[in-house]
Amino acid sequence: MATEKQTCFVISPIGQDSSETRKRADQILKHVVRPAATACGFNAVRADEISEPGLITTQVLQHIIEDPLVIADLSGSNPNVFYELAVRHAIRKPLVQIIQKDEKIPFDVAGMRTIPVDHRDLDSVQEAKTEIEKQVNTILKKRPEEIESPISVSIELQALRHSENPEERSFAEFVSAVADLRSDIAAMDKRLAKPDSIISSQNIEALAEILSRRILRERPDVDRDYMKMREMMHMIDRTMHRIDELQRTKRPEDLATMLNELKSIQDIMKTMTINFMETREFRR
C-alpha cells in the first residue's frame, strides 16, 4: 500500500471564476507549485480545493498552522494572502515564497528569499520549480528555532533590547539601524521611480517649460545629481550584503564599526535627498 503524501498548503490569490487572477492562479498551481510539491513528496492543496465540510476560514487557518509545508504566492499583494502569510511566519514552520516576476517584493517581507516566476515563460517556470524543490529540501532539514521570519526576528530583537548583556543590546541597536536604513532606501527608491510623487501635479507644466528652456544647461546637472544618488544606493546595497553576513556570524567586535557606517550612510542619503530636491525648481 502506497504511503499517503503529506499536505503542502498553497496560499494564493484566487479571484472570481474566469477572472485573470483565477486563470493565473490555476496555471501557477498546475504548472509550478503542484509539480514541485509532488517532486518533494507532498500533495499541494489550495483553499478552494478543501473538500471537508465546515467553516472555510477555520479550515484554511488549520492548514496554515498544521501542515508541514506551505508555499505562498505573494503576487498582486492580496490582503488575504498576507494575513495568512503572517500566521505562518508566527509559528516558524517551513515556508516557501514565490512572486510574479518583475513585481516588487513588499518591504516587510523583502528580507526573506522569494522566488520570481513568469507563468508565460517556460524557462522561468522550470527555474521556479527547480528553486522551489531546492528550498523545500533545505528548509525541511531545519529545526523550528532555525526558521526565521520577520515576526520571529522582531521577537528576538525585543529580547535582545532587554538583555543584560551589553553586546546583545548593541546587536539589537545594529539590527534596528539596518531596518531603518532599508525603510529609507525603499521609500526613496519608490519616489525616484514615480516622478509624480516628487513633482506636484500643478507644477508639472511649469517644470516642462523650465526644462525646455534650460535643457542644455540643466540636464547635465540633473544627470549628475541623479547618478550620485544611484551610486550611493549601490554602495548601500554592497553594505547590505556585508550586514547580512554580519547578522549571520554575529561577531560582536564588528558591531560598533558597522553601526557607525550605517548612521553615516543614513546622514549622507538624507543630505543628498534634500540637495537633490532643493537644487531642482520643482519643489512642492
Shape: globular
CATH C-level of the largest domain: Alpha Beta
CATH topology of the largest domain: Rossmann fold
Helix/strand class: alpha/beta
Please provide the count of β strands. Answer: 5
The residue ranges in which pLDDT falls below 50 over 5 or more consecutive positions are 195-204, 210-222, 276-284
- How many structural domains in the coordinates? 2
Radius of gyration: 23 Å
Give the overall pLDDT as a whole number.
75
**What order do the helices and strands follow?**
EHEHEHEEHHHHHH
Major sheet description? 5 strands, parallel
Distance from first to last alpha carbon: 72 Å
CATH architecture of the largest domain: 3-Layer(aba) Sandwich
**Helix percent band:** 55-70%
The share of residues in extended strands comes to 5-15%
For the largest beta sheet, what order do the strands appear in spatially?
2-1-3-4-5
Number of helices: 9
